[in-house]
Amino acid sequence: MRSLALLLIGCLLSSCATIRHGRDEVISVDSNPSGANATIKCANNVTANGTTPARLTIPRKADGCRVDVEKSGMKTQTIQLERGFDSAYWSNFILLSGLPLGTIAAFSNGVFGSPPAYAGALFVAGILGGVGLIVDRANGAMYDHDPNVIKVTLQPEQ
Q1: What does the alpha-carbon distance between residue 68 and residue 92 come to, in Å, rounded to a whole number?
Q2: Could you give the CA distance from residue 99 to residue 89 in angstroms, rounded to a whole number?
Q3: Coil, helix or strand at residue 47
Q4: Which of 24, 117, 134, 146 sits between 20 and 30 A of 105, alpha carbons compared?
Q5: Are 42 and 106 in contact (CB under 8 A)?
Q6: Does the model's pTM come out above 0.70?
Q7: What string of pLDDT tens digits covers the 158 residues of the chain?
Q8: CA distances in angstroms from 35 to 30, 45, 90, 103, 118, listed in the order given
């Protein structure tokens, strides 16, 4: 029973995207030559800027983002960021599967004998997985931007 509890705690801590990496994401931008101005512009007036090499922080839920890298005398480079789902978000479904398994185990009293001792733990894990799904969606931690490391070579204007 103790080992099962430790396993469930480990799954919980490794599966929730909010716990694993938080609501914000760092986008690394580098250019050749360095010293260029890097700006991220997203929908809903979300912006971040810095000088390359830069580490720019944006909310994970930001959508419609693009990165502009510009330097005097050079052509501006624009890179679109695609928002997708982070792998930690999908791990919540592993815990969520404990809800039906725990329910089946708990209510199978007459069919398979007395309910196993771990039925309650499975049921609780399922509830925690459901909470993880809701929290990750509400605060945007379920999202990830690609690419999150950008390297550009700026070309001289002609």
Answers
A1: 35
A2: 17
A3: strand
A4: 134
A5: no
A6: yes
A7: 566 565 555 555 545 777 778 889 999 999 999 999 999 999 999 999 999 999 999 999 999 999 999 999 999 999 999 999 887 777 766 666 666 666 666 666 645 556 666 666 666 667 667 777 788 778 888 899 999 999 999 999 98
A8: 9, 25, 38, 59, 58
